Amino acid sequence: MSRRVVVTGLGLITPLGQRVDAFWRRLLAGESGISLIEAFDVSDYGVRIAGEIKDFDPTAYISKREARHQDRFSQMAVAAAMGAVDDSGLDLVNLADPFRAGVIVGSGIGGLSEFEEQHTRLLEKGAMRVSPFMIPKLMINAAAGQISIQYQIRGPNAGVANACASANNAIGQAFWTILGDEADIMIAGGAEAACTPLGLAGFCTNRALSTRNDDPPGASRPFDRDRDGFVLGEGAGIAVLEEYEHAKARGARIYAEVIGFGMSGDGNHIVQPDPEGRGAAAAMRKMLADAHASPEVVDYINAHGTGTPLGDMAEAKAIRDVFGSHADTIAVSSTKSSVGHLLGASGGVEFVAMTLAIRDQVAPPTINLEHPDPACDLNHVALAPREMPIACAASNSFGFGGHNACLLIRKI
Which entry of 195, 204, 246, 341 is annotated as an active-site residue? Predict the structure, then answer.
């Protein structure tokens, strides 16, 4: 009997809320989580806005001692995972076989704040004052490791570092892991906390960010004619994936079924997408092939849609290339308009959003899409949510390095 994979738990930490219900309510209301940065002095920066989470308290989820031993990105990953596991109703600590449950979590950058702090300590106090916890805190696989330790699960465990495609890659690999009978339960998604002095400086000099400092809520404008770059964000998005019969046997509430995953490389430029969107199109085609699905089954796409001039055009071309005339009927939106670009966490949060879109049969909006760019000619869900039948939804994530990862889920 072929195995199937379903979504049974969702959790997140975002600029729009740290609970799934609050995030979803605010997303559908068209609210923005973008604001002026308060965590550090940005007076010398060309960009002073971000999707900054101002009220995250890791000790609401883990002990003070555990929190001291984790970087912010890992703390948020653990918090989001705890929300997802609670939502699933699973008792992971008392599993009959802890080797049948695993974790795959991605991050584009990992423990950047820890790196900055310890580098400052090295320069000011000397080598022997650097923390012995530096490496375990900053390594990208720390998030997956800490989640597995939290629940004492011993199945497949990995950290993924594919820039902004990291979370989709993690969820896709978790999906394949269950299909391959290597596990029955997988915790998967992404986490990122790069809203730091060095992180912001790097993206500022890279000229990738919006400079709309006088209008933070209106700064993230995917597919809009007046977009001028993405807005840096932070957070985590985690899902519990489970083998269908396993979930059904315990009476689990099932959100949706994961049916396809595809990935590719642009082979074009370290930060710029293939302008023709060929790599993105290849990933979407592989996603459909993996699901044995035709393009016509897709009703909604949660686009990568960062708000960069080149990236949005390339994605629009790729969608047109793959779906042809059916692209006129596929609803397309970018939740980055509301929370910013969470880099390696973005796919995890967007996976939560498209899963809820299927649950509630409503496509979330792209806020700030006041003047759609003719070069991004798609069926945009602009400014307000759209109630509509959604039997099948896709999520696109594309990252620096030319990494492309696309996921497909369906109503069950």
Answer: 341
Question: Per residue in 91-141, pLDDT tens?
Answer: 998 999 999 999 999 999 999 999 999 999 999 999 999 999 999 999 999
Q: How many residues does the chain have?
A: 412
Q: Strands 362-363 and 386-387, how do they pair?
A: antiparallel
What was the pLDDT predicted at 1? 56
| Contact assessment for residue 356 and residue 24, using Cβ atoms and an 8 Å cutoff | yes
Helices 346-360, 20-28: crossing angle, 10 deg rounding: 80
One-letter amino acid for residue 179 of the chain: L
Q: Domain 5-249 has what CATH class?
A: alpha beta
Per the annotation, the verdict on 119 as an active-site residue is: no
pLDDT tens profile 161-216: 999 999 999 999 999 999 999 999 999 999 999 999 999 999 999 899 999 999 99
Tell me, yes or no, if 195 is annotated catalytic: no
**376 counts as catalytic:** no
Q: Tell me the pLDDT band of 367, cut-offs 50, 70 and 90.
A: very high
CATH of 261-410, one of 3.40.50.620, 3.40.47.10, 3.40.390.10, 3.30.1220.10: 3.40.47.10
- Domain regions of the chain by residue span: 5-249, 261-410
Per residue in 232-252, pLDDT tens? 999 999 999 999 999 999 999
Token match 């997140």: residue? 12
Q: Is it true that 5-249 and 261-410 share their CATH fold?
A: yes
Q: Which of 190, 189, 188, 193 is nearest to 233 (CA)?
A: 193
Among residues 246, 304, 380, 403, which one is catalytic? 304
Across 374-392, average pLDDT? 98
Exposure letters 217-228 (e unless 16+ CB within 10 A, then b): bbbbbbbbeebe
Of 10, 11, 346, 8, the closest CA to residue 178 belongs to 8
